[in-house]
Write a structure and sequence with these properties.
The complex is a heterodimer of chains A (327) and B (450).
Chain A (H helix, E strand, L loop, with lengths): L5 H9 L3 H19 L7 H18 L4 H23 L4 H20 L4 H4 L5 E2 L3 H5 L9 E3 L2 E3 L1 H25 L2 H11 L1 H6 L4 H24 L3 E2 L6 H14 L5 H27 L6 H4 L2 H16 L16
Antiparallel strand pairs in A: 1-4, 2-3
Helix pairs in contact in A: 1-13, 2-8, 2-11, 2-12, 2-13, 3-4, 3-5, 3-11, 4-11, 9-11, 12-13, 12-15
Chain B lengths: L1 H25 L9 E9 L10 E6 L2 E7 L5 E7 L2 E7 L16 E5 L4 E6 L37 H33 L6 H18 L4 H30 L3 H23 L12 E5 L2 E4 H23 L1 H11 L1 H6 L4 H26 L6 H16 L4 H18 L8 H15 L13
The chains are: A mainly alpha (327), B alpha+beta (450).
Chain lengths: 327, 450
């Protein structure tokens, strides 16, 4: 096999990459918001930004170590959910979508503003947030894994190991939650909020809890993506939210494993597509420039989002009956 | 049902892609791979005039230093090998006597095969700023009229002029925003859809006008008309190929909204693919056409406002005095009742899409003249459009107008108190605030929204 096809190994690696972990957790949170409760949250990227910056500021600026930084990220996401939820959760679903997308942009524009540079690094973001996490790594330096042409150091194995354990634990918690009485109430809110209210349930409070839990998942998930690389504010624009939506709808909105497997399929597909496209560009099969080939992934995500909603709203793993979007 | 409408949607999407691919051949030559990239440097002084005869040194690792000098239009162009990071240093001594210096100097630009404009503003020098990466930066560029460097402490220009300047900028931009907002409001009123792909209709208009004027050398007014026609066609095609089949299929409003998000992402990056992710400046005269209280307005500031006002009056006339306009209001008010009274609801919605597409395209052209045009231009004002329509009242036409003007004025004037980079944050906060206290907006009917 010629070295041109190394992207196939890259795609295999993408199945387990930290970015896949981050999006799997964010999509799982969104599935709780939208798939199980029917909340139109278009600000999931905002939860990632808040969690990421709270963690990074704790780890890099305040130097408080990994676990306190993690707590800061969780607290940040909870606070953001409260700020977002109190004014909007009583409003109609489509208002929530506009407010959440706006709030996520407020967060991104605020952290990237030059005035916030001493704390957030402005548009350059923050680096080296994983130092305290990698210091906890019990895997010896000599340990490494070779997957074809891809080489994993002990730190790379460590972040993936902890990340996927987190994903499994989160999936287990959400699974237990949605099959509990609590889960039946939130599914009831999705199907008919007035009926749930008529039964004496405080729908607002349930929706708030859902917003907090799903947001915290996004806030924790992003940590795994930024620790091995860096935190860049522009990685968390509205297109990030749309990626998470595509992932959730791909796997199945009202499922637990859908968003996780969806994230794996999504990032592996993107790696394969970009590999083939860049191969086509290099060999001259595709008459496009390298700059143009970078746009193809976004076009595909947009197209996938449209086609999924129209033709398979339940996603890969979902049940048709649960994919009746209300509204 | 699914199988019947499936091919139409696909065919339409493919048609979009094919049409845009066809544009590839007529897009500016810069969209093709190039070894060298044209970089335009412009120098603008505090009263928005272009400054000639400014020497700018261009340096990079492994690149022989070159010096360029701005012409009488305050612009200079240089072709640079792509793939390096260049430093542009403007020579302060070459400025006219008495000028304070440059706001941001030197500028570091990452040249990646995309024609880019580097802008130097004359003003009080600021502390060394971060590098600016062409093609990666997302923030909307400052409008060409606004005097930068207003940190409030220098008092270089007097307060009155500054206020006038911001009010005028706010009105000019607010009118442009209104064109786009009215379309969003009409679509929401008649179909219930929050159209997330509206920003892309705006971008489309800007790019059509840019391509028409730069590649086909048609006049700027002809470019405006071409954009209007093609924008209307885009609106019509969208309704025909996507929204009408989805309505027929009985798809809920929320899935349709998600489809519009997908379409927005698809179109945005089709634009980036075809026109490459650069920021383009329209060829226009920056010298002041008229002066109001000492603040100069360029030709396109004035004409943009005139065009906007004419179109808004036209929309108001159509809605109030024509049969289709009355039918539109009837559909917005009560769709089943309108249908029962013999109004062809599908036709009304089609006309609304065509009209909204045309209005959005014009807004795009005017934004291209007001700022620059890039594939993100529309997306970056989408949230402002939503904020404006929410402020005025979703689904109300005059609310969209008032909301746009008010919002634009507020965000311009807010820059007296907060950094300019945060002015969009103000818009978002206003939107959230209005939802808290008056969710139906300023002009909206009182109804249950929660």
């Amino acid at each position: 096999m010629s070295s041109d096809f190394t992207f196939i190994w890259v795609a295999v690696g993408a199945l387990f990459d930290p970015i896949t972990i981050a999006y799997a957790l964010a999509a799982l949170g969104l599935a709780l918001h939208f798939g199980f409760t029917g909340l139109l949250n278009f600000g999931q990227a905002g939860f990632m930004t808040i969690g990421g910056y709270a963690f990074a500021i704790g780890a890099v600026k305040l130097n408080v170590g990994f676990f306190p930084s993690l707590l800061m990220a969780i607290a940040g996401a909870v606070l953001f959910a409260l700020l977002l939820g109190i004014p909007t959760l009583r409003l109609r679903a489509d208002y929530l979508s506009i407010v959440t997308i706006g709030a996520a942009e407020i967060v991104r524009l605020s952290v990237r503003t030059p005035e916030a540079r001493p704390l957030t690094g402005g548009s350059d973001g923050l680096n080296g947030t994983g130092a305290s996490f990698f210091a906890l790594n019990p895997i010896p330096d000599t340990f490494s894994i070779n997957l074809g042409p891809i080489h994993y150091t002990n730190d790379m194995v460590w972040v993936r190991l902890v990340g996927w354990i987190t994903v499994i634990v989160a999936a287990l918690i959400i699974w237990l939650l949605v099959r509990s009485p609590w889960g039946r109430v939130i599914k009831g809110i999705r199907e008919d909020e007035d009926a749930v209210r008529a039964l004496g349930k405080n729908a607002f409070s349930y929706k708030m809890q859902v917003l907090i839990i799903g947001g915290v998942l996004a806030g924790i998930g992003v940590i795994f993506a930024i620790m091995p690389s860096s935190l860049q504010p522009d990685n968390y624009g509205t297109q990030t939210t749309f990626f998470i939506w595509a992932i959730m709808l791909l796997g199945g909105a009202a499922t637990i494993f859908g968003p996780i497997v969806g994230s794996m399929i999504f990032w592996a597909t993107i790696a394969i597509t970009e590999g083939f496209v860049s191969l086509g560009v290099k060999t001259g099969v595709l008459p496009i420039t390298p700059v143009q080939s970078g746009q193809i992934r976004y076009m595909l995500v947009g197209l996938a989002l449209m086609l999924l909603v129209i033709f398979r709203p339940q996603g890969i793993f979902g049940k048709k009956a649960e994919a009746r979007f209300n509204g | 049902m699914i199988t019947r409408s499936a091919p139409r949607v696909l065919v339409l999407v493919l048609m979009f892609l094919a049409a845009c691919a066809a544009f590839l051949t007529i897009a500016p030559p810069a969209a093709h791979a190039a070894d060298t990239t044209a970089i335009t440097v412009i120098v603008i002084d505090e009263s928005s005039k272009r400054v000639p005869d400014v020497a700018i040194a261009v340096t990079a690792d492994g690149f022989t230093e070159q010096t360029i000098t701005t012409d009488e239009k305050g612009a200079a162009t240089i072709s640079l090998p792509a793939g390096s990071t260049y430093t542009f240093t403007a020579d302060v001594d070459s400025l006219p006597a008495g000028a304070p210096g440059f706001v941001d100097n030197p500028k570091i630009v990452d040249v990646q095969g995309i024609p880019t404009t580097v802008r130097f503003d004359v003003g009080e020098p600021q502390a060394a700023q971060a590098s600016e990466s062409a093609g990666a930066s997302e923030t909307a560029s400052e409008p060409a009229t606004v005097t930068p460097g207003d940190d409030g402490s220098t008092g270089a220009t007097d307060m009155g002029t500054q206020i006038t300047q911001k009010v005028l900028s706010g009105l000019v931009f607010g009118l442009i925003l209104a064109l786009a907002s009215i379309g969003v409001s009409l679509i929401y009123g008649t179909t219930g859809l929050n159209n997330f792909a509206h920003g892309e209709m705006v971008t489309f208009g800007g790019f059509v006008a840019f391509t028409a004027t730069s590649s086909f050398a048609v006049g700027s007014w002809a470019g405006l008309v071409i954009a209007l026609i093609l924008g209307a066609v885009l609106g019509w095609l969208q309704d025909l190929g996507i929204w009408k089949p989805l309505r027929r299929k009985g798809v809920g409003l929320i899935p349709i909204m998600i489809v519009s998000i997908g379409l927005s992402l698809l179109l945005r990056y089709v634009f980036a693919f075809v026109w490459s992710p650069g920021r383009y400046t329209m060829d226009q005269d920056f010298s002041p056409l008229i002066s109001i209280f000492g603040v100069g307005l360029t030709y396109w500031n004035v004409m943009g406002s005139v065009v906007s006002i004419v179109l808004i009056v036209a929309v108001a006339y159509v809605l109030n005095y024509t049969q289709i306009g009355k039918a539109t209001r009837a559909v917005a008010d009560n769709k089943p009742l309108a249908a029962a009274s013999g109004i062809n609801v599908d036709r009304v919605i089609r006309v609304v899409w065509i009209g909204s597409g045309a209005l959005a395209a014009i807004a795009g052209v005017l934004i291209a003249y007001y700022q620059t045009i890039s594939f993100q231009s529309g997306a970056s004002i989408l949230l402002l459009i939503f904020a404006a329509t929410t402020l005025g009242g979703l689904g109300t036409t005059y609310g969209a107008l008032i909301g746009s003007l008010l919002l634009s004025l507020i965000i311009e004037l807010s820059t007296f108190f907060i950094p300019t980079s945060l002015k969009y944050v103000v818009a978002m906060l206003i939107m959230i605030l209005i939802l808290l206290v008056r969710p139906q907006g300023l002009l909206g009917k009182k109804q249950r929204v929660g």
